[in-house]
Amino acid sequence: MRILLAIDESESSHRAVKYVGSLLHRTPDVAITIFHVLKPMPRGLLEHGGSESPAVEAQMDQQLHKDQEDWIRKQRESQCHVLQSACQTLKDSGFDIQRVTLKFGHEDDIARNILEEARGHETIVVGRHGMSRIKRLFGGGVTDQILRDAKGFAIWIVE
C-alpha cells in the first residue's frame, strides 16, 4: 500500500504525520511519500520578454531555465526542514524510514499538484486547517479541492 502524506508547516499537518506514524508503524507493507508543495514561482521566472532574433531567444530560454532551476533548488533547501521534521516524526513513532520517500512539488495550484503526485498511491492523507464559515460554505481550501477532485483514492483528513 502506498500513501501520499501531503504536508505543510501547519499544526494540522504535524498531527496528520503523527497519526499516520502511530497507526501504521507496525504495518510492514506500507510505503509513505511525504510531499510538500513549495510556494509558487515568481512571475518574473515564468517567461522572458522574447526576442526577434532566434539566437537571442535561445539564449534567453536557456537563462530562464537556469534561473528557474536555481529558484527551485533554493526553495527546496529553505523548505527541506519541513520534510525532515515530518520524517523524524514518523521515525519517532516507530515507522521504518526506509519505507519513506521525501518529495517536493512547486505549482500554483496546490491541490492539483497533490493529486498529480498521488498517481501510483492508493491513499492521500492531509491535515485540515481551520477555516471560516464562508470558506466552508463555498468549498474553499486545498482539502476541499482534493475531496472534490480526487477519484479512485482513499482520503484521510486529520483535524
UniProtKB/TrEMBL annotation:
<dbReference type="InterPro" id="IPR014729">
    <property type="entry name" value="Rossmann-like_a/b/a_fold"/>
</dbReference>
<protein>
    <submittedName>
        <fullName>Putative Universal stress protein</fullName>
    </submittedName>
</protein>
<feature type="domain" description="UspA">
    <location>
        <begin position="2"/>
        <end position="151"/>
    </location>
</feature>
<comment type="similarity">
    <text>Belongs to the universal stress protein A family.</text>
</comment>
<dbReference type="Pfam" id="PF00582">
    <property type="entry name" value="Usp"/>
</dbReference>
<dbReference type="InterPro" id="IPR006016">
    <property type="entry name" value="UspA"/>
</dbReference>
